[in-house]
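[recover] target loaded
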């Protein structure tokens, strides 16, 4: 509809309001395809719908072959007797998920507290459909319907392998015990004597093979073929080693003929979720191949409101961003979708662990028999679809449903009988049915009923166990520096908002709308207190910006530096704290949000800061009373010896005043203090507004491994000098090189170019007095002849 001009660009201005009528209509999809006489000679034909969104009747050549009510479930339908030679007509009637579910709402007699559903009638909870389609506190409402995944027709004789699970019973460096569980559909009327063969290999290893004789009967046959691999090549997370992937190929042979074949690619590894009572409470972390892992990463939301717009190129790009920030884990959040195969394949190949929510979030759900039957089908389908991925680390029942039941005041809005029913339904769904299905169809991964499992951000006395969604920063309006004093065992959500940069704002707002309270800006800010809260924090830490453009820039800097402070405190706090998954990495439309990358793939300041603080070996600084503590925070599995830590005292105007050097030892896979200095030995109290600490860690060859700048105050209490940045640009096709220098400190220097998605080698940097820094910008849209304008600004210029 958008491509044909029936709908306006929903992202521009206030156009969101003009596309809402679509959700109340039914929509018909029609397709003709040709089947040959040779294809009809096969014993069986199956049409495979990988994803229909959501309520649909499906007709093939006039015969109804399928009714659907769940976006997340695929369907394989035998159609041998329905197909005809020549033209075949497929017709799908999609029903409005709004009108379809109105009777369900009437049956209950009240609306569920689905606050993120942006319509008065809260109908999202009755639909097994992506919750974010109905709106969220970062998302536009676009309740779409249609064919969102491929449709194919499969022809076969004798048998087909319908599913193949390479179940990793136990894996270590000495041996991997595998149970190959293979689901074979036979169409022969009589039993068939066959051979089941499984071959396996990596790119680097010699092939192996196992086989057994089997008897196949008509219909579904589940066959188990165990095997053992000696000294397997283990799959390791990012920064720990290689991501070795094995190809396992199962074949069904009748005589010497291969009648069915299926290949699964997976990595051999062990992943355990560890919760142990300890002196502080209870631990919460992941152990991979027997080694404790500090989880560094983010929450991921679908990258498009229009789900069909995510292609394989998108997944490559988002994992470039994940990898570029040195992450090792990503959480697929429960308000979105179970992601496409390409997502998990990228994670497998790059060593990124996946925390997978089932798709429930932020509201109670029905628990009647019909609803749970649909959920069961959905859960089984997606467990089986995803279970072979080496990256898949953890199953989680939902996002914040129990949190809401306990703490969001619903007991003040609904009768006790309703609340009791919701708690009972919660247990039935998330503590009984789904974990039983995970055990039956996966059996190798840990599961938790929901996230957070125990702790709540308003109750920090619970931070000593479980995972935490700590919204004390932002919704609780706590200062950034408070985060170091409330460390969780594992932070699975926390974040801070910013606007996207101006080149993205220009795509949806004209200059007359460049103000916090303009109609367009309010449409592109879905959090209830969002813009006002950004301003409130800015008033705490920065001088008032001179313009809206400056406000946007300062907000980006504030988000980046504030989130870096929070994440670094968590990483320094290892092993008490063992994970930092911030909210959120990406956007699904151009919007003000908590993301570290905007919709057009521009890295915000936060993503650069996450890249620094998540580095495999990073330098951290804590200041307590008069003591400066210098940390190494290492993911390396071996100690790093003979490193040189250099600490410089920098005057904002005159440059380096003092320098202290010391040999340090970075312990493997932990965080430790490697140097302490008394601040009073370096500077007076009055100097803290005029001076900073610049520290860097180098190896024996003089290469800088990590650097860190520490300011004693936020910018509104610093005496930042006025300065002019000298900028030189070297133009080449696909790459601009920017050389920056300043005689005085230029804080948080932002280099901007009007090209969406350009990649910068660095940005939002501190340019020290007399220092020369080079930033390289890459994009295929950069042409030397165009001399695309480059602009540079720093914090002191904004007030």
């Amino acid at each position: 509809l958008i491509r044909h001009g029936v709908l306006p660009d929903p992202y521009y201005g206030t156009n969101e309001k003009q596309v809402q009528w679509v959700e109340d209509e039914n929509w018909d999809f029609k397709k003709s395809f040709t089947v040959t006489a040779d294809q009809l000679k096969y014993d069986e034909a199956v049409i495979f719908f990988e994803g229909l969104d959501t309520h649909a009747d499906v007709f093939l050549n006039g015969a109804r072959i399928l009714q659907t009510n769940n976006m997340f479930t695929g369907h394989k339908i035998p159609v041998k007797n329905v197909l005809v030679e020549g033209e075949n007509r497929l017709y799908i009637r999609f029903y409005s998920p709004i009108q379809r579910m109105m009777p369900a709402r009437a049956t209950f007699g009240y609306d569920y507290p689905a606050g993120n559903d942006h319509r008065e009638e809260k109908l999202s909870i009755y639909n097994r459909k992506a919750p974010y389609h109905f709106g969220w506190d970062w998302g536009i409402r676009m309740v779409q319907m249609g064919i969102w995944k491929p449709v194919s027709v499969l022809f076969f004789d004798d048998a087909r392998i319908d599913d193949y699970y390479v179940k990793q019973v136990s894996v270590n460096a000495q041996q991997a015990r595998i149970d190959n569980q293979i689901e074979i559909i036979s169409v022969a009327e009589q039993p068939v004597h066959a051979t089941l063969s499984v071959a396996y290999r990596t790119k680097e290893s010699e092939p192996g093979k196992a086989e057994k004789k089997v008897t196949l009967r008509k219909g579904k046959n589940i066959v188990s073929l165990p095997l053992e691999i000696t000294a397997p090549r283990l799959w390791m997370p990012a920064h720990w080693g290689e991501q070795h992937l094995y190809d396992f190929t199962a074949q069904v042979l009748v005589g010497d003929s291969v009648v069915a074949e299926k290949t699964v690619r997976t990595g051999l590894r062990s992943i355990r979720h560890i919760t142990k009572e300890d002196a502080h409470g209870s631990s919460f972390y992941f152990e991979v191949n027997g080694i404790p892992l500090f989880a560094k990463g983010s929450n991921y939301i679908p990258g498009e409101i229009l789900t069909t717009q995510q292609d394989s190129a998108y997944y490559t790009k988002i994992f470039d961003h994940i990898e570029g920030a040195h992450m090792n884990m990503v959480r697929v959040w429960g308000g979105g979708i179970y992601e496409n195969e390409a997502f998990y394949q990228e994670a497998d190949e790059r060593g990124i662990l996946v925390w997978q929510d089932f798709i429930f979030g932020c509201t109670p759900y029905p628990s009647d028999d019909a609803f749970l039957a649909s959920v069961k089908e959905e859960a089984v389908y997606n467990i089986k679809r995803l279970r072979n991925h080496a990256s898949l680390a953890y199953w989680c029942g939902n996002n914040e449903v129990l949190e809401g039941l306990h703490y969001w005041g619903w007991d003040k809005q609904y009768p006790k009988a309703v609340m009791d029913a919701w708690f009972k339904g919660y247990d039935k769904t998330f503590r009984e049915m789904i974990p039983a299905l995970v055990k039956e169809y996966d059996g190798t991964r840990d599961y938790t009923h929901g996230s957070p499992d125990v702790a709540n951000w308003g109750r920090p006395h619970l931070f000593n166990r479980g995972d935490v969604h700590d919204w004390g920063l932002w919704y609780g309006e706590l200062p950034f520096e408070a985060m170091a004093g409330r460390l969780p065992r594992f932070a699975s959500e926390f974040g801070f908002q910013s606007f996207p940069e101006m080149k993205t704002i220009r795509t949806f707002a004209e200059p007359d709308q460049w103000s916090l309270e303009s109609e367009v800006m309010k449409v592109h800010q879905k959090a209830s207190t969002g813009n006002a809260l950004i301003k409130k924090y800015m008033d705490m830490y920065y001088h008032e910006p001179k313009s809206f453009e400056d406000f946007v820039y300062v907000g980006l800097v504030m988000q980046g530096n504030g989130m870096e402070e929070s994440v670094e405190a968590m990483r320094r706090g290892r092993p008490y704290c063992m994970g930092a998954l911030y909210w959120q990495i990406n956007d699904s439309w151009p919007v003000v949000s908590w993301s570290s990358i905007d919709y057009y793939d521009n890295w915000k300041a936060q993503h650069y800061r996450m890249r620094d603080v998540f580095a495999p070996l990073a330098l951290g600084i804590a200041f307590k009373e008069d003591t400066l503590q210098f940390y190494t925070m290492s993911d390396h599995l071996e100690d790093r010896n003979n490193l040189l830590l250099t600490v410089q005292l920098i005057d904002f105007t005159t440059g380096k005043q003092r320098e202290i050097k010391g040999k340090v030892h970075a312990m493997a896979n932990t965080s430790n203090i490697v140097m302490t200095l008394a601040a009073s030995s370096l500077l007076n109290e009055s100097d803290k507004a005029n001076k900073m600490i610049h520290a860097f860690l180098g190896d024996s060859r003089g290469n800088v491994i990590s650097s860190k700048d520490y300011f004693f105050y936020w910018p509104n209490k610093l005496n930042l000098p006025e300065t002019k940045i000298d900028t030189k640009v070297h133009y080449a096709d696909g790459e601009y090189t920017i050389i920056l220098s300043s005689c005085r400190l230029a804080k948080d220097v932002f280099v901007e170019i009007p090209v969406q998605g350009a990649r910068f080698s660095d940005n939002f940097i501190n340019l020290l007095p007399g220092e020369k820094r080079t930033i390289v910008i890459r994009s295929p849209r950069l042409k030397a002849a165009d001399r695309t304008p480059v602009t540079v600004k720093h914090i002191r210029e904004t007030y």
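[recover] notes: The chain is about 20% helix and 35% strand.
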